[in-house]
Design goal:
alpha+beta, about 400 residues, about 40% helix, 12 strands, elongated, single chain, 2 domains, 7-stranded mixed β-sheet, 18 helices
Length: about 400
């Protein structure tokens, strides 16, 4: 990468990269592959970091780096402070581990944001490099190897100049970063540049580009677990983390969800800044049996949230009086309800918290493999009795 190209990529305000990282959920892990491929686009992890406070401190430091407020040297100073504060024991040398955390998160965030810039119509109109050829229905992208790396990877060098439509399957597995320490990047290309690339033999991936490396399970030249497009993965919802919830012991999963609702992504979701579905509760054993659910995670869609907030008045007046703190009680209200009523195919759950009675309506999907919150409000004992009279009371310790 030339100095000019570097400045065009990394010296611009980059809200897409900042937003990509800010929307991640903190995920405690033992090993680097506890999150796999596209799950990294929705979850922030530091291998071996399980304490919520430890992860939060690392996250804050990484966010500053992505926001352009912290260099690698600054980050390493913060790394030392965080390690000392939490008494964290980690593998590898201090310089190697801190640089790995810094570069992996910064590079992935930049390339996720870059995919959005390069492929979304009208994205970042002020950045010419992001919209060259934007008049095409499908933009053209060119792979660029970084000339600044001390130990170039021969295959990555061979892909330099490869120019393909953004819809080509090559970008699904080879979009950078595609390995530990990979500094390759991608630029938009014009029709003229595409024709020149074709003439130079760079208009199609090289023969054998899909061949799998038996040791890594990824295409040859791609590191294990890196054969995915972080930009495309960022467009998916938090459901990519669903299997993490379902495989974990309930007590650990409940601890996770209690932390999630305290994090900024949940606040951004409630504020309408994140679309899709968000995990809001994990059922304990009693709740799971009462609701007759196969899964333990409960999700809230952005559509149901809008309705509940009263922002779709033609459908429902909703409950705009609820605050962020009220929504942060959802893991307790749904996860450990004091009342469960079955009524017209729905489950009505309720619990007392902070001097109020909260009621939520949960629906199981066909096959009972997914649970969704469809309504949430404060209520009173009179309404509770009316609901009990009109439905089948399954569980009741509400007093």
């Amino acid at each position: 990468m030339t100095p000019e190209e570097y400045n065009r990529v990394f010296k611009l305000p980059f809200k897409e990269a900042e937003s990509f990282f800010r929307n991640k959920l903190n995920i405690p892990t033992d090993k680097w592959d506890d999150l796999w491929k596209g799950q990294h686009a929705k979850g922030f992890m530091v291998a071996g970091a399980q304490k919520a406070e430890l992860l939060s401190d690392f996250r804050e430091a990484v966010q500053k780096a992505i926001d352009g407020k912290m260099t690698l040297k600054d980050f390493q100073g913060s790394f030392d402070e965080i390690v000392k504060k939490h008494g964290w024991s980690y593998n590898g040398s201090r310089n190697w581990r801190s640089e790995l955390i810094y570069n992996t998160n910064v590079r992935s965030s930049y390339m996720a944001g870059r995919w959005q810039q390069l492929t979304e119509p009208g994205a970042r109109q002020g950045a010419r490099h992001a919209i060259v050829g934007a008049r095409r229905a499908v933009p053209l992208l060119v792979y660029r190897h970084s000339d600044g790396v001390s130990r170039p990877r021969p295959l990555h060098v061979s892909w330099n100049g490869l120019t393909l439509p953004a819809s080509h399957d090559f970008w699904k597995s080879h979009y950078p970063p595609n390995g530990w320490g990979c500094r390759c990047t991608v630029f938009a290309a014009s029709e003229k540049e595409h024709r020149e690339a074709i003439a130079a033999g760079k208009g199609e991936p090289p023969r054998g580009w899909t061949d799998q490396d038996a040791k890594t399970g990824a295409p040859v030249g791609i590191d294990k677990g890196w054969d995915y497009n972080v930009g495309q993965a960022s467009e998916k919802g938090y459901e990519v983390l669903a299997n993490k919830f379902e495989k974990l012991p309930t007590d650990i999963a409940k601890s996770w969800i209690n932390e999630f609702v305290k994090q900024s992504p949940f606040e951004r979701f409630i504020a309408g800044k994140i679309k899709g579905n968000f995990p809001v509760a994990v059922l304990d054993k009693t709740a799971r049996e009462a609701i007759k659910a196969e899964s333990q995670a409960v999700w809230l869609s952005d559509d149901s949230l809008l309705k509940n907030k009263g922002e779709q008045p033609k459908r429902s007046k909703g409950h705009p009086e609820l605050t962020l703190n009220d929504y942060r009680l959802l893991p307790e209200i749904i996860g450990s309800p004091e009342l469960v009523i079955e009524k017209e195919g729905y489950k009505i759950v309720a619990a007392k918290r902070e001097g109020s009675i909260y009621m939520a309506v949960v629906k199981t999907t066909t096959g009972k493999d997914e649970l969704y919150l469809v309504s949430y409000r404060k209520t009173n004992l009179r309404d509770i009795e009316a609901e009990k009279a009109g439905g089948n009371v399954i569980h009741d310790v509400l007093s």
